[in-house]
Design a protein that fits this description.
The relative contact order is 0.15. It contains ten helices and 18 strands. The longest helix has 14 residues. By secondary structure, the protein is α/β, with parallel strands linked by helices. The strands form three sheets. An eleven-stranded mixed β-sheet has the order 1-10-2-3-9-4-8-5-11-12-13, sandwiched between helices. A five-stranded parallel β-sheet has the order 16-15-17-14-18, sandwiched between helices. It has two domains: 215 residues, DHBP synthase; 100 residues, Threonylcarbamoyl-AMP synthase, C-terminal domain (Rossmann fold), CATH 3.40.50.11030.
Amino acid sequence: MNTETIVIRSESDLHQLKRAGDILRSSGLVAFPTETVYGLGGNALDKAASKKIYAAKGRPSDNPLIVHIATPEEAEKYCVTNELYYELAASFMPGPLTVILPKKYVDGIPVVPDETTGGLDSVAIRCPADPVAHKLIVSAGVPIAAPSANTSGSPSPTSAEHVIHDLMGKIDMIIDGGESVFGLESTVVRISENTIYLLRPGAVTAEQLSVFADELIIADEHLKEGERPLSPGMKYKHYAPAKPLYLVSGDEDQILNFLLEKQDTEKCAIICYDEDAQVLSPDNLFLLGKKNDLLSHAHRLFDFLRKTDITDASVIYARLPDKEGIGLALYNRLIRASGHNIINLK
């Protein structure tokens, strides 16, 4: 397949999205930027398009797709909304929040087909803030089903370069809109009248969500055998580099001594903080930013997981983040990328 690419850097370039909208209405696939990561988009109401998404990614078909809409109110066309949804929408939409709601049915048939929702009786709804993503949805005139635009299981793409590496020749178009601002996928929640279930952490944090419901429940890191994933990123090993990744936990001296020893005895890559560069040698060192700059960590993480794979290292070590604020999202991505391989030095 010939994959068309277009570059959008300013408002004057947005006219190119008309062609992308035509592709989406014709059951084609378009990779596009969002504020979180790049998405691989297809018409969410088109069974054939959803099947193409799974095929292009090599994604298991029971892993639901997120439906992207232009405004929060459009959710009413596809699912059953409630008061809590609109309270969350007022604070976090457009933005990096996905809300799982019951499907809407017309004459006994779901408006959003099972092929899009992984066979579930619910729909994952998101309204992206990225202006290119928003304009694309409007141009297409249909809701866009979009997982991350990468090969299933590999680090999510935060630039068009990443998408080109994974999907060139497999999809119809790639829209280059520059680097994603945040760099980790959206927060995913399932809601009831008084409870928020946090299924995947992201830029909208548990602390921010907790004020909207009587109870906030954070999903377990492991699904039980036979349990179906309600959200992307729950069931399968995700975000993984090709090389083995180990996460290191302990106090500062323990961690630095461990990493120094590994640099002396192994050909390794290390993902760590700017401050660590004062102690560690520069070879294959990937600096996330200052220790407390979690937004910088989120922005760089997936890019670094990809870059470690093109070094001469045979193994990767990374610091295990704390679970507070955005740290919970970083922790979630890293434990899944490593297959839960944690070296606890305490």
